[in-house]
Structures are given as structure tokens and as C-alpha cells.
Design brief:
Length: about 140
């Protein structure tokens, strides 16, 4: 008889725990700030701002896939105009030097591999610029 009393008490406690768990779940659901999926949806308006109102279907515009440009816009293939300057310094042993741009411009680094022909210190040269790891470098260097 003692065994059946313990079993009934255990069953009562188990049911009370389940009821308490269900009550807490219902309470959390009723007091939740989210309010469901509808309150979680966000839209982006035509100016790129996030809003909670859906877009107006009357303002919809059709866009062709080929009109969309991702990344850098296409540039016309126009050859850059070569700059002029004077070979200011050049270290033969190390294979680099500097070109002073004409008209009091900037000085640009130049490596021996950028020379298209033999150039000496003091010669006037034409060159193009290319971005290197430490700034702009002179490339395609030749006598003017």
C-alpha cells in the first residue's frame, strides 16, 4: 500500500511541474515584446532607409539586369596622357630612384624595371603613374 501512495504522489508532482511549465510558457508568450513575425519584418524604401511599412506597388520600376553595375563603373579605354619630369636621383646598385615631376610637382619612386630605354640622372623623361604598395610609382619611363 505504501508503494501505491508514493507512486500517486510522484505522479501528482510530475503533473504539477508540467502545469507550471505550461503556465510559464503561456505567460512568456503573452508578455513577449516581439509580437510575432509581422513585427520583425523590415523594408527598405527608395532612399535606402529601413522602414516598417511595405513598399507601394504603384511606385515599382522595372530595371534591366544589364543596366546594373556592380563595383567600379565601366571606364572608357582612353590612354592616360604621359607626364613629364626629370630623373632626380638613381642608385644603380639598388636599382631604384626618383623622378621630379615638371612644374614643381611631386616626386615619384621609379624602379629599374620601369625603364623602357636607358636614362641617366638629369634626363627629361615621360612616364605614367601606377599605384604601388607605398604610393604612386612611375612606370613606362622613357626619354622625352
Amino acid at each position: 500500500m505504501a508503494d501505491s501512495f508514493n507512486k500517486r504522489e510522484q505522479e501528482k508532482r510530475r503533473q504539477q511541474k508540467q502545469e507550471e511549465k505550461a503556465r510559464r510558457k503561456a505567460e512568456r508568450k503573452a508578455n513577449s515584446p516581439g509580437g510575432g513575425l509581422d513585427n520583425m519584418i523590415a523594408y527598405v524604401d527608395e532612399f535606402g532607409r529601413i522602414t516598417d511599412t511595405p513598399p507601394d506597388p504603384a511606385k515599382r520600376q522595372e530595371i534591366k539586369a544589364e543596366d546594373i553595375e556592380i563595383g567600379v563603373p565601366r571606364r572608357e579605354d582612353v590612354a592616360p596622357e604621359p607626364l613629364t619630369g626629370r630623373l632626380d636621383r638613381f642608385d644603380e646598385g639598388r636599382g631604384f630612384g626618383f623622378i621630379q615631376q615638371s612644374g614643381g610637382g611631386e616626386r615619384y619612386f621609379v624602379h629599374i624595371s620601369a625603364f623602357l630605354e636607358e636614362v641617366r640622372v638629369g634626363d627629361t623623361v615621360t612616364f605614367e603613374l601606377e599605384r604601388g604598395p607605398r604610393g604612386m610609382n612611375a612606370v613606362q619611363v622613357r626619354k622625352a
